[in-house]
Design goal:
alpha+beta, 32% helix, homohexamer
Chain lengths: 152, 152, 152, 152, 152, 152
Amino acid sequence: MNESNYRMVDVGGKQVTRRRAIATGRIVVGPEVMAYLKQGELPKGDPLRLAEVAAILAAKKTPDLLPLCHPLMLDHVGLLCQLNESVEAVDVYATVVTSARTGVEMEALAAVNAALLTIWDLSKPIEAALTITNVKLLLKEGGKSGRWEHPE
Amino acid sequence: MNESNYRMVDVGGKQVTRRRAIATGRIVVGPEVMAYLKQGELPKGDPLRLAEVAAILAAKKTPDLLPLCHPLMLDHVGLLCQLNESVEAVDVYATVVTSARTGVEMEALAAVNAALLTIWDLSKPIEAALTITNVKLLLKEGGKSGRWEHPE
Amino acid sequence: MNESNYRMVDVGGKQVTRRRAIATGRIVVGPEVMAYLKQGELPKGDPLRLAEVAAILAAKKTPDLLPLCHPLMLDHVGLLCQLNESVEAVDVYATVVTSARTGVEMEALAAVNAALLTIWDLSKPIEAALTITNVKLLLKEGGKSGRWEHPE
Amino acid sequence: MNESNYRMVDVGGKQVTRRRAIATGRIVVGPEVMAYLKQGELPKGDPLRLAEVAAILAAKKTPDLLPLCHPLMLDHVGLLCQLNESVEAVDVYATVVTSARTGVEMEALAAVNAALLTIWDLSKPIEAALTITNVKLLLKEGGKSGRWEHPE
Amino acid sequence: MNESNYRMVDVGGKQVTRRRAIATGRIVVGPEVMAYLKQGELPKGDPLRLAEVAAILAAKKTPDLLPLCHPLMLDHVGLLCQLNESVEAVDVYATVVTSARTGVEMEALAAVNAALLTIWDLSKPIEAALTITNVKLLLKEGGKSGRWEHPE
Amino acid sequence: MNESNYRMVDVGGKQVTRRRAIATGRIVVGPEVMAYLKQGELPKGDPLRLAEVAAILAAKKTPDLLPLCHPLMLDHVGLLCQLNESVEAVDVYATVVTSARTGVEMEALAAVNAALLTIWDLSKPIEAALTITNVKLLLKEGGKSGRWEHPE
């Protein structure tokens, strides 16, 4: 098939191994939303607990969201949210683990993005000028290429 | 990660084994719908065949419906519907089988619920005061915790 | 077309009106889960907040879950959970509102069922012999047939 | 369970083997669309690249589209499109590969159909009297029944 | 935006009108499957009733399957299946109706294709060399461009 | 209902008006991926065309991704990608338009995020240390609160 075609690349020759990825991202929310978050709640509810749910669901939906991603069984999805008061932001960290023939970087990134958008959705009645930034892959491990950590 | 977070728990350390679950549930439909069902058809079509289809599709959608459920390959999904004339009800029984690292109780229950709601949807032009009741897990087997049967 | 066919009935001749439905259901959880719920948390997290999320998502997925249901825009979905200590149960109430040509009974019922199954999923590490019961439509209003309340 | 019931048949006793299927299909587009396609673009964009994307996504959605199909991990999905000027048509060929307990014929066919419908969607502003024809399974291999090629 | 981009074209300036489309298609099943169909059942169940369900669900999923299609409310979806013994085939006809700013041709075609693939799925244990052919739009009406019928 | 509950807020009292949102975001890809992009292609295909498709699909999936978002009909979705060589990045801009009771900010942001993740997915074989940054809402208009532009 012509190399310029879109295709889901064949991973059939790869080993089923335990693979893990961790991604992160930040939403800068400003002082007013930050004040609410320190109380643990926005008018539409606790955004961090809802972000956890959205992250787990998004990790499972990755092959539907990103056309060339393989459908995968996932062993674990978790999200950690941290208030970062010095920059009036929330930092999120998603971990995804699978036992599969290909990695879960995109699943971890999709989880991070869904979590950040969920926090956005609950924050926007208070502040419209939000910013998502600093979305990065921190770690991937498992598979032939071995462990990789973000250089920073 | 904080124990109060929502997360998809890590099943990576569990064995892939054949696991099976059977769930049941009842919809009480009243005399008028029951009379139709004994003829095998409601005005909108045969509800029991449609319930079988809805049950199979719902079992496959479980990880999308229930946020903390793992995406799983399913080996088998089947639904049995029985008219229970003495209580003017339909009893449904769903069986789900997988070869996976976690069980399929929620898949069997999701299948039961979708089947009962489908019967509801076709019965409601005739009777609005329907009731779903008696939704239970009857059996689970496979995996470390072994076979469990409902005590009743 | 043959009347025994499955089909999505034509609602094109109906008026777009505000329509509302309220449904309820109960999950009997037993003493051990009840003790946890009175503390507000199960080992896998707060089941009631998660049930709210699952209910909203399920209401939106109704046309995908129930084959003959019409795709609808929804104006509002909300879920109320109440601990019912005397029967060691959680009672849930879902309200769905639309501005559409057909009602939202099935959306309210799908929300109730997803909420109850979510509570089940978080309760099952503690108690396997759970029961869903008492799933009913309490109210529908809007449209030509007017207001209907459950006779009980 | 009664043999006339719809069910997802139990494949738990089958071996996990590498399985492959190739399907094909044709859309006859007529002279005006053909002239555009020879330039590589329709007014709404390049239909063949979009068809590749739709095919990959459809292969992944097969268990959701076809009620009795098993959810499967897919190792590879690819689509090849060929202009067939002599009949003013586009021929598409989809290849799907899995490592699973059941084959991927329906996934390959779902990919072909989604590709053809996507070309249709982009061609219809120019020509409404399009035709899909010649949708066939060309090859399946892997599993107990071995290799099968279309007799033509 | 550059005209060669993929985009969902803006239909905001069009009128909401009642729009209808009818599409057709054929699956050639051969003598052995035809003999079963005349009895009304294949070993995996009645394929025509299941095709109706798959068609309705597929019409609702069209915006998810075909990237550039608009999400639409649907007023009606129905499928008619006819055995065509002289060519050992099943002919299907799907009707879709909406009240919207754009037409439902692709929804009708998606319904036809899902119906034909469903019949294929149930027929393939008996006959692998099946063919889908003759998929056409027969009618569209409603909207500025008015009524169109297939010229044949 | 208790104000701390998650719910889809009732928009039934709002007017159906034309509403538009524009969002933006950036992926910093580094020199090696940038060199490929200037040729128009990565080894897995043209990422910008694929990003357009992912953006349109993600806008339609927003109510499924973000739990509290309303299901909406969309009149238009489009994506513009610009290579930003001075910072070795791709900037994307998504526009979403609806005629509805609530706005489409989250749809535009979901489109931006899916586009950026798609570019990531195709760039990662070349460079793992990618960064998404600068995701912002630029404009929203329509509805009671009127036109809002990002202050920068």
